[in-house]
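RECORD TYPE: inverse folding
INPUT: structure tokens
STRUCTURE:
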């Protein structure tokens, strides 16, 4: 089933002008939204963005919030006059968090919906399964995934990850803090697919550089529902238990980990993926008090909260605790979903810089080259998570990471990395690939 959202009415230039004029009245009241008086859409034909969403499957909790953020971002862009004076139409298709179905969705976007770009995917195996088809169809594909697959240079020139950092950058920036503050003997628990393998490979190497060692690697199928049988493999001499889990069983995983350790546990460092969309006040999670988590965008509003984060929360309907304003029990995937907001604004910036008009080979080439020429995104309304440096050769951004401590069922940031902490030498160069 196709869900089309945020489409301004296609009823002639005169009605479009009236629509934008009406929207401008409310927009002028906010310091974040420029007044649009006298502005008219350059065309009634929308720019179509095909969102590949995890509505079902193991990524459903992420997919729901990714779609919610993308819808809010599209609404804001349209309030401000669209892209190149044209409304934006968001076309959403469910990929089932499945790589085969993901490739089918990409083909559907290109041949049936005739979208200008595809966008939004999170789970790495879906990105890896979909990217070859995007390249074959010459469809620009903007993912919000975090895996190192884009930055590795192993995909193709049509695939970009500009609005979120990758796992390699994340772990190498935080390994020094972990080794200096928590311990050097580590056991890792991670999901047994590409995303988890990135953690396994790059954190192991980063800890070795810090004089540490990984004692045990415990890979768990992402569809697993019980984890008790894996936990006895944790060596007794473990100083730090590093965990990153995904999927519907994450809450069970954390609860069973607490039951296994009881009152005696090593230091625990987790990626927030293990508790995205989960309330920290949930019973049996009390044992996490005093443990640490990686966050890209802090779920709980911090004392130094920026005005940009405040505006972003208001637009996507999230409160200061990272829960839905409509339902305090509906916890967002806050540390990842900002990438949807930022990526759409990057896409808007690139389309306007390139003068994009339609999905012709010339316009696609101009769009791709415009993105590749970008170098930095400043912290601001369009980039509420923070400033970023973009490397056009590998189609990847580098940004700040946060280490947060659980205190009274809340996450408080105790360390923020610099952008430079997570930078590494490019492994490839997409700009040398033909279009």
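DESIGNED SEQUENCE:
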């Amino acid at each position: 089933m196709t869900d089309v959202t945020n489409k301004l009415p296609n009823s002639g230039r005169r009605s479009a002008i009236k629509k934008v004029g009406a929207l401008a009245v409310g927009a002028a009241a906010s310091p974040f939204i420029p007044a649009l008086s006298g502005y008219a859409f350059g065309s009634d034909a929308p720019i179509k963005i095909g969102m590949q969403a995890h509505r079902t499957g193991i990524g459903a909790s992420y997919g729901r919030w990714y779609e919610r953020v993308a819808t809010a971002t599209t609404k804001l862009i349209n309030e401000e006059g669209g892209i190149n004076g044209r409304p934006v139409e968001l076309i959403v298709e469910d990929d089932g968090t499945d790589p085969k179905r993901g490739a089918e969705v990409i083909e559907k976007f290109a041949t049936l919906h005739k979208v200008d770009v595809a966008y939004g995917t999170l789970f790495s195996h879906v990105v890896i399964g979909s990217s070859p088809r995007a390249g074959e169809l010459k469809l620009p594909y903007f993912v919000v995934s975090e895996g190192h697959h884009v930055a590795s240079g192993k995909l193709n020139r049509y695939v970009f990850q500009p609005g979120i950092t990758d796992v390699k950058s994340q772990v190498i920036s935080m390994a020094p803090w972990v080794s200096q503050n928590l311990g050097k003997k580590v056991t890792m628990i991670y999901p047994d697919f590409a995303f988890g393998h990135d953690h396994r490979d790059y954190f192991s190497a980063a800890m070795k550089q810090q004089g540490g060692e990984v004692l045990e690697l415990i890979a768990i199928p992402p569809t697993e529902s019980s984890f008790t049988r894996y936990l006895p493999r944790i060596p007794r001499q473990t100083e730090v238990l590093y965990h990153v889990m995904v999927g519907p069983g994450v809450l069970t995983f954390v609860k069973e980990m607490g039951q296994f350790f009881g009152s005696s546990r090593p230091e625990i460092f987790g990626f927030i993926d293990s508790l995205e969309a989960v309330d920290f006040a949930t019973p049996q999670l009390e044992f996490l008090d005093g443990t640490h988590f990686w966050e890209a965008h802090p779920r709980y509003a911090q004392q130094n909260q920026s005005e940009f984060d405040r505006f972003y929360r208001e637009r996507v309907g999230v409160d200061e605790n990272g829960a839905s304003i409509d339902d305090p029990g509906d916890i967002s995937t806050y540390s990842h979903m900002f990438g949807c907001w930022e990526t759409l604004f990057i896409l808007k910036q690139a389309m306007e810089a390139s003068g994009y008009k339609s999905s012709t080979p010339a316009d696609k080439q101009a769009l791709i080259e415009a993105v590749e020429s970008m170098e930095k995104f400043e912290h601001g309304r369009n980039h509420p998570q923070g400033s970023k440096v973009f490397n056009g050769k590998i189609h990847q951004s580098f940004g700040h990471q946060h280490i947060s401590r659980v205190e009274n069922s809340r996450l408080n940031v105790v360390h923020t990395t610099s952008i430079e902490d997570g930078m590494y030498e490019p492994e490839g160069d997409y700009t040398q690939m033909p279009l």
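NOTES: The chain has ten helices and 18 strands.
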